[in-house]
Specification:
The chain is mostly beta strands and 443 residues long. It has one domain: Neuraminidase (6 Propeller). The protein has one helix at residues 2-14, and strands at residues 34-38, 46-47, 52-53, 56-61, 67-72, 82-87, 93-99, 103-104, 107-108, 116-117, 121-124, 127-133, 140-146, 152-157, 169-176, 182-189, 195-202, 208-212, 225-234, 240-252, 255-267, 273-285, 298-306, 312-321, 325-333, 339-345, 350-357, 363-371, 376-384, 390-396, 401-410, 416-424, 431-437. It is globular, with a radius of gyration of 21 Å. The two termini are 23 Å apart. The model is unreliable at 1-27, 45-53, 108-114 and 284-298 (pLDDT under 50).
């Protein structure tokens, strides 16, 4: 209780930008919203100038409004000890359980800086699904967990997705479809040393509905090409747009160079590839700090949404300088992925931690930035309209603490939930928080 009250005093004294002067209970002036801190054994963040691995992960909600978030348990030294916390609709803890030797699937927020974004945890009906591996990446599976008591119901193996020659294999994301099925995305390696996307759909019992491992390499020399699939959007006709960044390595005047292109695969409801679109992002020298040859930067994609005008809104990043200039870029395109507008969000060296679409159709993007000389992290939450305009921005930060939003999700009662960690500078301690807000990020 003493630790809980200490943080409450800190929040009020420093005027925590959104959370200031609010009670950490469901007695907020905005009905249905709250902030709670939880006294749980959370593993530490690993922080350097270019690395931030949060001890907390994704968050999801069921139809009754109960909230679930996973985190890394620090009780024992097993780095793959993942735990799940369940709360009621008002943030009151119901249960929490730890699951040994399990590491949730993730995507490196960028290939150089090793920052993670999590899309691996969904709730369908009365079951939770958490995708990951045994930690060594040898065995991949989905944990199916009963919402009511937190017990494991099934372990759905994904090892059948591994390429027949047993080359590199990695699951990076898992999503739920409107029909209540599970979509799993990752990549396969082959004998050339390259990699390409893989996509599979399962029902809730773990039966494979379809598998597409024939998505082609977009370049003629796959030995120098790596494809990292990152984003998914389901269209009204049941088709899926599956997007990612393709990195093609080559040489210019003896320098090692990488060309970055965003690829979008149109896949029908049967899992068949019916079209490919692309969007060039940049070319850069990776010998030391990047030098950009065409001035547009090297891009990666994190989230993809449909726009109100029939096109798409893409949340991406561009790397101009590894230490000081990593930019978050919001791209608006037409239906053929031709860019019609773009804007940057974030400050200095910034990273996307989560992006969702709320019940009103607005896109919510959480971005965190390292603040120097003290390596604190400050989160900014941006609200983007369905037509691609930035219509709001909220900052979440403390002078001497790092604040990480690691997951966001909409709730069935028209609100949003954010989960993450607060870590005091130079103190080996974390506090897990859950923040429930309205669709304008107010509480």
């Amino acid at each position: 209780m003493a630790s809980y009250m200490k943080y409450l005093v800190v929040f009020i004294f420093f005027g925590f930008c959104i959370l200031a002067c609010k009670k950490t209970s469901n007695s907020s002036s905005n009905p249905g919203t709250f902030l709670y801190l939880y006294d749980l054994p959370i593993a530490l963040n690993h922080k350097t100038t270019n690395t931030t691995i949060s001890g907390s992960g994704a968050v999801t909600s069921d139809l009754s409004g109960n909230i679930y978030t996973w985190y890394f348990d620090s009780v024992i030294s097993d780095a793959q000890r993942v735990a799940i916390l369940k709360t009621d609709i008002n943030g009151k803890k119901i249960w929490n359980f730890s699951y040994l030797s399990f590491y949730p699937a993730h995507y490196d927020l960028d290939l150089i800086n090793n920052n993670y974004t999590w899309q691996d945890f969904v709730c369908i009906g009365q079951s939770l699904f958490l995708c990951g591996s045994d930690g060594a990446g040898v065995n991949w599976y989905i944990l199916k967990i009963n919402c009511s008591d937190g017990k494991i119901v099934d372990e759905i193996s994904l090892n059948s997705l591994r390429s027949i020659n047993n080359y590199a294999f990695l699951i990076e994301h898992m999503w739920a479809t409107r029909e209540g099925n599970i979509l799993v995305g990752g990549f396969l390696g082959d004998s050339t040393g390259g990699s390409k996307p893989i996509l599979a759909m399962y029902d809730q019992s773990g039966n494979q509905i379809w598998l597409n491992e024939s998505i082609p390499y977009p370049v003629s020399n796959p030995a120098n090409f790596t494809e990292n699939p990152d984003a998914f959007v389901e269209l009204s006709n049941g088709n899926i747009i599956y997007g990612g960044v393709g990195l093609y390595n080559f040489s210019i005047n003896g320098n090692s160079v990488t060309s970055s292109t965003l690829y979008f695969y149109n896949i029908n409801s049967s899992g068949k590839l019916i079209g490919i679109d692309s969007l060039a992002q940049g070319t850069y020298n990776i010998s030391g700090n990047p030098t950009f040859y065409n001035g547009t930067g090297a891009g990666e994609i994190f989230s993809l949404f449909t726009s109100s005008s029939g096109g798409y809104i893409i949340v991406s990043t561009e790397i101009y300088d590894l230490n000081t200039d990593i930019r978050i870029k919001i791209l608006k395109t037409d239906a053929a992925f031709h860019v019609t507008d773009s804007t940057f969000i974030g400050l200095g060296s910034s990273f996307v931690s989560s992006a969702i679409q709320n019940s009103e159709g607005d896109i919510i993007v959480s971005v965190f930035s390292q603040v120097l000389p003290v390596p604190n992290a400050v989160c900014d939450v941006y609200i983007i309209s369905p037509n691609g305009l930035i219509i709001g921005q909220k900052s979440i930060g403390l002078p001497l603490e790092s604040v990480y939003i690691s997951g966001m999700c909409p709730t069935n009662d028209g609100h949003m939930v954010m989960s993450g960690l607060i870590q005091p500078a130079n103190i080996d301690n974390n506090n897990l928080f859950i923040l429930k807000t309205d669709n304008s990020v107010q509480y």
